[in-house]
Amino acid sequence: MHLQELKLTNFKNYEFQSLVFSERMNLISGLNGMGKTNLLDAVYYLCMGKSHFQGTDKNVVRKGEEFFRLEGRFLREKSEKIVAKVIPGKQKTIERNDTAYPRISDHVGLLPVVFMAPDDTALALDGSEERRRFIDNTLCQIDHRYLDELVSYNKILEKRNALLRQFSERGGYNPLLLEAYNQQLLAPAAYIFEQRSLFAVRFQPVFNEYYQAICGGAEPVDCSYRSQLDGADFLTLLESSADKDRILQRTTTGIHKDDLIFHLRDLPLKRFASQGQLKSFVLALKLAQYHHLRQEKTQPPILLLDDLFDKLDDRRAGQLIELLVKGGFGQVFITDTHPERAEEMAKKFEGEYRKFVIENGAVN
User: Fold this and answer.
1) 3-class secondary-structure state, position 355
2) Is 204 within a domain?
3) Each residue of 185-197: pLDDT tens digit?
4) Do 57 and 197 lie in a common domain?
């Protein structure tokens, strides 16, 4: 699978742009703030139905405009025309071959994609929410039931938390109402926990292999899954935490507390890793994510690598390039602030490549 053509209208800093891509390697160079990352985000949006970065679409539309539109032509077994038409706060439509999806979520997984961005170090440094989002992003592209169960769980959790706040604000306590939400959480939580557990078992060795390839085999790493549901009955956990939940006005136990635990040389990654080690760690996570998606999907994912060489020394950068050249990846997009370095890297790839230079939302 690959993206053949892309048209952007009022997307972030792009007024209008039409581009034709290589099916193998696409290099996007330019100074910081010119729109390199925005171009990758447009590709991601067409694949996932949302921005990789922005919480709401009102932050995606070009300043001073009321709508944005993205159109892409992807080649799978046949050509697929995907269009996103968005008026933030009013209307959002994703069309496949001129037919709108009944639900945006129905589109997720058709066009698998992996996005590596500089701020993805948050995976290692920030709270568990970032790491759960990483797992969910992978599994939602593979399993529509997982996506449905995750949406269902989050909606029920929101209602349960609202009830806990209502108890505090209005006084009184109705355990039967709380029990009703407890029962509704059990089935989606069980499926999500099962799929995350299976994912972690398969993911760890692949992740370790990619990290060793990037760092030259010098540093042992570990990635393990932690959940309150591991070896415990969820209903019992909910009932035993009822008093704590009432005091804090939120649900304190469940799969929304799951985490991935990272170690480097048996030490916590966030406390002991250098900037280069963090970048290598996150790159290995993303490449292992790519591998997992490729194993599960009929189409190879699109790989988006933003500011790839930032904080990588020459040795790690060289090993990464060799890995990308020989690793059997499909279509790749790479941004870099140094056009000469990007050009030298492109020459290492077999077959056609295309190079784009961006300045103030205009592409040459």
Assistant:
1) strand
2) yes
3) 999 999 999 999 9
4) no
